[in-house]
Specification:
about 90 residues; about 10% strand; single chain; two-stranded antiparallel ribbon; mainly alpha; about 45% helix; 2 strands
Length: about 90
């Protein structure tokens, strides 16, 4: 897993993953992240003993967006749209 690097002068910035490295490993990391996100949301709700509506309200306050629920992408990257290709 190799991040892209956008560096200039003394400043080092790392971006998304590059196409270098094992393609299967990149795919599996993406799948693991996608499957972990709902479990993390559930764990937070159980830990704080809150319902889903309260969970979404807290996320909206942090994200300053009425479209997205806490930890969930807005409609820009929803199931009916496609992510931009690098």
């Amino acid at each position: 897993m190799i991040p892209r690097e956008y560096s200039s002068g003394g400043r080092r910035r790392l971006g998304g993953l590059s196409k270098q490295g094992n393609p299967l490993l990149r795919f599996l990391w993406g799948e693991a992240g996608a499957h972990a996100a709902p479990g993390i949301r559930l764990w937070i709700m159980l830990r704080d003993q809150i319902e889903y509506n309260e969970f979404c309200r807290r996320g909206q306050k942090q994200q300053k967006s009425s479209d997205a629920c806490a930890g969930m992408p807005a409609t820009r990257y929803g199931a009916n749209s496609h992510r931009p290709v690098d």
